[in-house]
Recover the amino acids of this structure.
C-alpha cells in the first residue's frame, strides 16, 4: 500500500522531532526528510516530490520565508499539499499564506490531534484528486489520466503514444460512442497513414489485455466499457 511522502521544514529541531514522532505513530506515512533551511527543502522536493509538506512560515534570519519556500515548492511540484506552521497569526501573514491554498495551518504550540487532523485533510485531498484522474473499466482495469497508463491488478500496462491518445479520447467521452473517423483524425491528424493503420493500432492495443475494454460498434465507432 502506498504511503504518502512527507517532508518537514522547521528551523527548530524540537518541532520537527515532535512532528516526526506523531506521524510515525500513525504508520501510514513515509517521512522523507527533516530539514532546517529553504535550500535543503527545495533540494529534497526536486529529488523526492513529497506529497505533503509541513513548513514553518518564519524560518531563521538570512533565508527566505516559509511562504516563499512553499511557493517555490508549488512551482516545482504543483500537487504538493502544504501545511503551514506558525507562531504568528496576524492577518497579513495569513493572507499571504492562504494565497497558496494550503491544506491548513497549525498555530504553535500545536497538539498531536492537530497534526493528525492536518494529515487527514491532506490525505483526503490527495485521494480526491487521484480519484478524479482515474476512470474504472470493466475486467478490473482502470485508466489514469495524469500518468496516462492502464492499471490491472496493481500492475501498470505501458502504452504507446498513440494508445495513450486513444485512451484519452475514449475516456473523455465517458462511455459514449466516438466515430472511428473522429478517432483517426485526432490520433493521426496530418500524418501519412495506410488504410489499416487504425485497425493495427486497435489490434496491438487489445493484444496487451486479458479482456476487452473497448467495444466496437460496427459501422458507427468505439466506446469504453465502463465499470
Amino acid at each position: 500500500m502506498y504511503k504518502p511522502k512527507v517532508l518537514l521544514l522547521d528551523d527548530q529541531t524540537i518541532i520537527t522531532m515532535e512532528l516526526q514522532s506523531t506521524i510515525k505513530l500513525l504508520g501510514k506515512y513515509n517521512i522523507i526528510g527533516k530539514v532546517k533551511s529553504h535550500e535543503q527543502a527545495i533540494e529534497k522536493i526536486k529529488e523526492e516530490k513529497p506529497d505533503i509538506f509541513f513548513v514553518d512560515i518564519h524560518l531563521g534570519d538570512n533565508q527566505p520565508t516559509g511562504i516563499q519556500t512553499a511557493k517555490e515548492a508549488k512551482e516545482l511540484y504543483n500537487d504538493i499539499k502544504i501545511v503551514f506552521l506558525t507562531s504568528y497569526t496576524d492577518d497579513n501573514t495569513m493572507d499571504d499564506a492562504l494565497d497558496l491554498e494550503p491544506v491548513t495551518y497549525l498555530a504553535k504550540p500545536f497538539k498531536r490531534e492537530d497534526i493528525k487532523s492536518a494529515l487527514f485533510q491532506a490525505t483526503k485531498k490527495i485521494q480526491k484528486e487521484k480519484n478524479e484522474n482515474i476512470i474504472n473499466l470493466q475486467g478490473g482495469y482502470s485508466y489514469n489520466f495524469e500518468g496516462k497508463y492502464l492499471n490491472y491488478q496493481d500492475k501498470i500496462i505501458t502504452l504507446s503514444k498513440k494508445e495513450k491518445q486513444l485512451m484519452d479520447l475514449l475516456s473523455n467521452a465517458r462511455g459514449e460512442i466516438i466515430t472511428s473517423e473522429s478517432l483517426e483524425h485526432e490520433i493521426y491528424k496530418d500524418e501519412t497513414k495506410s488504410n489499416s493503420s487504425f485497425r493495427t493500432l486497435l489490434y496491438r492495443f487489445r493484444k496487451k489485455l486479458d479482456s476487452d475494454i473497448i467495444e466496437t460498434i460496427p459501422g458507427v465507432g468505439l466506446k469504453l466499457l465502463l465499470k
Remarks:
- The chain has eight helices and twelve strands.
